[in-house]
Amino acid sequence: SDSQFPVPVKPDEFDWSEHFPVFFPATEPEDNAKDLKVRFADIGCGFGGLIVKLALLFPEKLMVGMELRDKVTEYVKERILALREQYKGQYENITVLRTNAMKYLPNYFEKGQLEKMFFLFPDPHFKEKNHRRRIISTALLAEYAYVMAIGGILYTITDVQELGEWMKSTLDSHPLFEPLTADELEKDVCVELLSTATEEGQKVERNQGTTYRAIYRRIVAPKDP
Ligand code: SAM
C-alpha cells in the first residue's frame, strides 16, 4: 500500500540532492547556472528504458521515472547506479522514485515545473467500471496541467486501440491541451523513442503490433490571466 513509501508534504520538502549528487550542491560558480529542478517525468516508467535513453539526449535536464512497483523501482535504481559506474560522468541526470503518480504528483512538483511528461504503454484497465483508474482522465489531466509548464509536452503511446482512442479524445476535449502538428511531431526527437526505448515498446515492436500515440502541448487556458 501507499504507506510503504514516504511522500513529501510539499515539493520544497523533498530532497533531490541525494538523487543527483553530481548536480548538487552547485559549488562551482558556473554551476549556479544549472537548472536543479526536475523537468521531465516518466510516469509508470517500468524498467526505465526511456529515461536511460533521454539521459544522454538531454544531459542538462534532470528527469525522474515514477513507478508504483517496489521491485521494479529497485531494479531501475540499480540500473542507473550501474550505468553511472560504467560511464563516468553520464546518467547523473536521471533517477527513479517509487510512488503512486496518480495520487501524489503535486507533492513532488510545483506549478509549471515539468517541461515533459511521458505515459508509455500505461495499464489499459479494460473494464468500463475501471476506466476511472486510467492514468489519463479528465480529472488527472487537470493535475498534469498544473505541474506542467506552458508549452510543455505530454506524450502518450499504447498498443491498445481502445485506450489510444480514449487518451486522444480525453486530451482533445481538455481546454489546457492542444495536439502537436505533424510538422512538430516530425521534429521532436522524443517521438521516435516512444515506441523504441521502453521494454514494453520493444515487446510490441517484436510482435509487430500497432501503436497509437497522442502527443499534446500544455497551453494557456482561454480564461487564464
Ligand atoms: N512505461 C513502461 C514501458 O513502456 O515499458 C512500463 C509500462 S507498464 C505496462 C505500466 C507501468 O505503470 C507498470 O510498471 C506499473 O507498475 C506502473 N504504474 C501503474 N500505475 C501507476 C501509478 N499510479 N503510479 C506509478 N506507476 C504506475
Describe the structure.
S-adenosyl-L-methionine binds at residues 44, 67-68, 100-101, 120, 198-200. It is found in: Nucleus. It comes from Sphagnum troendelagicum. With 225 residues, the chain is an alpha/beta fold. It has one domain (30-218): Rossmann fold (3-Layer(aba) Sandwich). 35% of the residues lie in helices and 20% in strands. The protein is built from eight helices and seven strands; from the N terminus they run E-H-E-H-E-H-E-H-E-H-E-H-H-H-E. The protein has helices at residues 49-57, 70-86, 101-108, 138-147, 161-172, 182-187, 189-196, 199-206, and strands spanning 38-43, 62-67, 94-98, 114-120, 148-158, 177-179, 212-218. A seven-stranded mixed β-sheet has the order 3-2-1-4-5-7-6, with helices on both faces. The protein is globular, with a radius of gyration of 17 Å. The chain starts with 37 loop residues before the first strand and ends in a 7-residue tail after the last strand. The structure holds S-adenosylmethionine (SAM). S-adenosylmethionine (SAM) binds next to strand 2, helix 3 and helix 8.
